[in-house]
Design brief:
mainly alpha; 0% strand; disordered N terminus
Length: 305
C-alpha cells in the first residue's frame, strides 16, 4: 500500500518534468524571421538581378552576373543593395510568420509520442503557413520589387522611395491602400509553394541524410539539406515568381495572374515562365543555405542552458 502511494506522485513528477522540457524546447516564433533577415544581406544583390531579369520583356541581353555588372557600372555598386530596407521588412513579416506558423502547426498536429511527423502532415502545415505568411508579407513585397527595379525604369517613371516605410506611405497616399495587396493571389500561391517545398524538403532531406552513416546533425548536413531544398523550391516556384514580379511591378489597374500567365505564354512563349531560373536559384540557393544554417545555430543558442 505504501509502495503504491509513493509511485503515483513520482509518475506525476516525471510527467510534469517531461511537459516542462517540451515547452522549453519549442522554438521562439521569431527565430525563422531573424535567420531570414540575416540571409537577406547575402542574397539581396542576386534578388535585385532576378527581378530586373524577370521584368525584361523578350530576351534579356545580360545574364545574372552581367545584370549585376551593368547595375554596378551605371548606377553604382551600392545600387546592388537598392531596396534592402524593403527586403528586410519583407523577411521580418513574411518569413517570421511562415516559419513560426509552420513550427506551431507541426507541434499541434504532429505526433506527441516523439515519432517522426508524416510528410503529408508537414505539407499541410507548409501550405497553411505559406498562405498566412504570403498575406502578411505582401505589402513589403510590393515595395521591395518596386525599389529594386526602380533604376531600370526611365527617369520620368522612377519612384525614388527613400526606404520601405516611405514606399508604403507613398503607395497608400498616391494609389490607395488596396495597391499594397497587388498581386496577392500569385504571391500567396508562391508562398504556399515556397513554404511547402523549401521547409518541408529541408526537413525531409535532413531526416534522410541523418539516416546515413556518413552524416551527423552538424553544419555539413545542414548545408547539404538546405542546398537540396533550395533546388526544389526554385524549380517549383519559378512560374509563380515570374507572374508575381510582373504584376507587382506594374502600375494602374490590377491584372489577374491567369490573364498575365496567358499573355506571357502568348507573347514570349511558355519558357518565359521560367525566365530568370538560374538567377532565382543563385539568389534562393545562398538565401536558403544561410537561412537554415543560421537558424540551426540560433536554435542551439536559444536552447543552450
Amino acid at each position: 500500500m505504501a509502495t503504491t502511494t509513493a509511485t503515483v506522485p513520482t509518475q506525476v513528477q516525471l510527467q510534469t518534468v517531461k511537459q516542462t522540457q517540451q515547452v522549453k524546447t519549442r522554438d521562439p516564433f521569431w527565430l525563422g524571421g531573424a535567420a531570414s533577415c540575416t540571409a537577406a544581406f547575402v542574397s539581396h544583390p542576386f534578388d535585385l538581378a532576378k527581378v530586373r531579369l524577370q521584368t525584361t520583356q523578350g530576351a534579356s541581353q545580360h545574364g545574372m552576373i552581367g545584370t549585376m555588372i551593368q547595375v554596378a557600372r551605371h548606377e553604382g555598386v551600392l545600387a546592388l543593395y537598392n531596396g534592402l530596407s524593403a527586403s528586410l521588412l519583407r523577411q521580418a513579416t513574411y518569413s517570421t510568420v511562415r516559419f513560426g506558423t509552420y513550427d506551431l502547426l507541426k507541434d499541434k498536429f504532429g505526433p506527441k509520442d516523439g515519432s517522426k511527423i508524416p510528410v503529408s502532415t508537414m505539407l499541410a502545415c507548409g501550405v497553411a503557413a505559406g498562405c498566412v505568411g504570403g498575406g502578411f508579407g505582401n505589402p513589403a513585397d510590393v515595395v521591395n520589387i518596386r525599389m529594386v527595379n526602380d533604376g531600370k525604369l526611365p527617369k520620368e517613371q522612377q519612384r525614388h522611395y527613400k526606404h520601405a516605410f516611405d514606399g508604403l506611405y507613398r503607395i497608400v497616399k498616391d494609389e490607395g491602400a488596396s495597391q499594397l495587396m497587388r498581386g496577392l493571389g500569385p504571391n500567396m500561391n508562391r508562398a504556399i509553394l515556397m513554404t511547402s517545398s523549401q521547409l518541408v524538403s529541408y526537413d525531409g532531406f535532413k531526416r534522410q541524410l541523418l539516416q546515413l552513416p556518413w552524416f551527423d546533425d552538424n553544419l555539413i548536413t545542414h548545408f547539404a539539406s538546405s542546398l537540396l531544398a533550395g533546388l526544389v523550391a526554385t524549380t517549383v516556384c519559378a512560374p509563380l515568381d515570374v507572374l508575381k514580379t510582373r504584376i507587382m511591378n506594374a502600375s494602374g489597374s490590377s491584372t489577374s495572374s491567369t490573364r498575365m500567365c496567358f499573355h506571357i505564354i502568348k507573347t514570349e512563349g511558355p519558357s518565359a515562365l521560367f525566365k530568370g531560373w538560374l538567377p532565382a536559384f543563385l539568389r534562393l540557393g545562398p538565401h536558403t543555405i544561410v537561412t537554415f544554417m543560421v537558424l540551426e545555430q540560433l536554435k542551439l543558442l536559444v536552447h543552450k542552458k
